[in-house]
Structures are given as structure tokens and as C-alpha cells.
Amino acid sequence: MNTLIVGGGKLVYFLSRTFFSKGYQVTIINRDKSECIWLARQLKATVVYGDGSDPRILEEAQADGTDTLLAVTPNDEDNLAICQLAHLRFGVPRTLALVNDPDNEDVFRSLGVTRVFSTTRLLSNLIEQKAAFEDITSLAPLADGKVNVSEVALRDDSPVVGRSLLDIGLPPDSLIAGIIRDGRPIIPRGSTALEPHDRLIVITLPENHGQVLKMLAGNNA
Fold this sequence. Notes:
The chain has helices at 9-21, 33-42, 55-60, 76-88, 105-110, 119-132, 165-168, 209-217, and strands at 2-6, 25-30, 46-49, 68-71, 94-99, 115-118, 136-142, 147-153, 174-181, 184-186, 199-204. It is of the alpha/beta class. The chain folds into 2 domains: 2-118, Rossmann fold (3-Layer(aba) Sandwich), CATH 3.40.50.720; 133-220, Regulator of K+ conductance, C-terminal domain (Alpha-Beta Plaits), CATH 3.30.70.1450. It has a 6-stranded parallel sheet, sandwiched between helices. Helix 1 (9-21) links the parallel strand 1 (2-6) and strand 2. The longest helix has 14 residues, at 119-132. It is elongated and about 60 Å long.
């Protein structure tokens, strides 16, 4: 897959490393010349110096041969312009934009951006859920916030310890998708009994998220 990333900083560096590990080809556009030199030395990516909202720079970066473009600059307006140019002028089929102001999410979607990620919304959700449920060790909203994936640590007194998944009776649209037990991943079945210190990978919808966590963690939630 050919991936074009517009932006800079450690975020672009780590994204590029992740994509390389998956076998992707990566091109980076960055408007900071010194940062371009650093990225070119650290990565095997093609690095283009310039403004990613300039059609000439997108052309130089061969945007017309790109499968996916990520716009992750600090400015929402730039990210929107980059995605629109990439899609409308260069035919990039999939565009993803970082949005700093959550109020811009719907605007970006209505203007054709394929996927929108709001760091503010992600962080606020994490902080809120961490504060409310001390046994949650991680939480990631997916599908534009329509699905939550949580990791829940069971204590000795958790109400589901010793019970099988069939006996728990989780509400509809919720699922225990995996268990980490003594450092080993387990794909659970209905007969799988839960044990103290299990770490559960839980998938829920936002509307039943709190109910499911309460069922699993009890008074510790």
C-alpha cells in the first residue's frame, strides 16, 4: 500500500515506522526543512519538503499514485484542504484527517474526508473513563466513537470471577473478545470461566458501555 503522510513531529515518525513494519511504502510531506532532513536520515521514506496544501507539492509527492493520505498537521483548515485536494484533484481514494477541534468532525465528513480523528475527543474519553472506572487499563473508541474497546482488569472480588461467559449474561451488543491470563492471550468460549487478575478485552456500544463495566468490575467500577 502506498501511503502519503502530511505533517511533522514524532507522530509522523512513529506512524511511518508502524506502516513500514506492515510493508507499506511511505512518502512524507513536511514544511520544515530541518525536520525533513532528520526524517530522511531516520526513515526509508521518501521525504518531500513543502506545503502539503500546495497542489504542486502533492504532485511532486506523486499523490496520484497514493492509496491513502493522512493529514496530521496542527491546523484543521490545512488538514481539510489537503484531504480535499488529494481526493478531488489527484483521485486519492482514502483520506484521513486529524482534527483538533471536535466541532469540526462533522464538517470534515460532510466535505468528503473518509475518516476523521479528534485527539481532543479521544483524550477526553480516556480521562473520563479512567476517572469513572479504576479497573479500566485502556480504552479506544473506534468507528468514529460508535464502538468502544476496553481492557478491564478483574480483582479477586470482581462479581464475575469463577463464572463462565454464558453465566454472566452480558447485554446485547457487548462482547468479551479476548482474555489475557498470566501474559497469555486466550480466545474465550461460552464455557470459559473467568479468574482473578484476568484482563478482559471488552467490546461495547457507547450506550451499554457503563452497564457492562459495572457488571464486570462491580463496586470497583
